[in-house]
Predict the 3D structure of the following.
Amino acid sequence: MDPTAHHFAVTVSDLDRAIAFYRDTLGLEVLSEFAVGGEAFATGVGIDGASAQFAHLEAGDARIELVEYTPEGERAAETELNQPGANHLGLEVDDLDAVYDSLPESVEPIAEPQTTESGTRICFIRDPDGTLLELLEL
């Protein structure tokens, strides 16, 4: 087996709103938008009658996949970083202070940018659905 990362997915409640956040707030480029449905998809994802709208965004060498499912499931409980099973997306930026200063008022950081013992500067924010995003400057 020789796996290679293809994408990192985030389930969202409103694809248009999520695209606007990831594109306009974080500056990611939308590569494609498409829909998938049918019995094979529903069986593959384990959700009866499922279909979904997708957007792929370019994040350097990574691809972020935003997915809005029909039917929509129950909202996941908001997690803290130290909870087993919690996850987050890490996005490297050139100038964390400039990115932090440019965040719209609707984006509430967990804390101001911090410099860790390793010298990495970090700032965690949440997307409109509560997904944790780590903005980091190496």
Remarks:
- The chain has a mean pLDDT of 95.
- The longest strand covers residues 51-59.
- DSSP finds three helices and eight strands in the chain.
- Helices lie at 15-25, 39-45, 96-102.
